[in-house]
Specification:
Layout: H1 21-53, H2 58-69, H3 72-99, H4 107-131
Helix pairs in contact: 1-3, 3-4
The protein binds protoporphyrin IX containing FE.
Protoporphyrin IX containing FE binds near residues 29, 33, 37, 93 and 96.
């Protein structure tokens, strides 16, 4: 049968200062999920408005994208978006496996692994994004 854990009282808000990998995994998962939703809501109108306001067509779409990519801040934001998306996917798969009962006893280590793999993928992407090879 399952074990029971003493989770403390709900009212003891100061518990967040006690480090626990699971809490940070939970927080980062929520944060990354809602950033992705926010990004999607921004992404679709920005691109479609960009095309329409310039008369439409494939060339104007390309020009809109190249204009955005020419801004360094946009390329930095893309690195950030990649970090958020990769972390959410890796941690999401980790959560789904844990939901299936796989790896619960190693859940701290799999969280750290998802952070390390996210970091490696993001670092590897930097030359491409910041180089602006579009
Ligand atoms: C392969 C891709 C993805 C996987 C494996 C995945 C996995 C998950 C899982 C397992 C949860 C539930 C976490 C829990 O048990 O509390 C979750 C929550 C969530 N996901 Fe994803 N996800 C993916 C892609 C996305 C995308 C593309 C978006 C947004 C556009 C997104 C937005 C969210 C949001 C908003 C939540 C709820 C966060 C909260 O608890 O408030 N996810 N995801």
């Amino acid at each position: 049968m399952g074990e029971t854990y003493d989770r403390g009282t709900v009212e003891s808000y100061d518990r967040w200062t006690e480090f626990s990998a699971g809490m940070w995994a939970w927080l980062l998962h929520k944060f990354s999920g809602w950033i992705l939703v926010g990004y999607l809501f921004m992404h679709i109108p920005v691109l479609s408005t960009g095309v329409q306001s310039m008369g439409g067509g494939a060339d104007t779409y390309t020009a809109t994208l190249q204009g955005l990519e020419s801004l360094l801040v946009v390329r930095f934001l893309e690195v950030g978006l990649l970090a958020v998306a990769v972390f959410h996917v890796l941690n999401g798969v980790r959560l789904l496996l844990i939901d299936l009962g796989l790896g619960l006893e190693n859940q701290d280590r799999s969280f750290y692994l998802s952070l390390v793999v996210t970091g490696a993928i993001v670092v590897a992407s930097v030359p491409t994004f910041l180089g602006g090879h579009l």
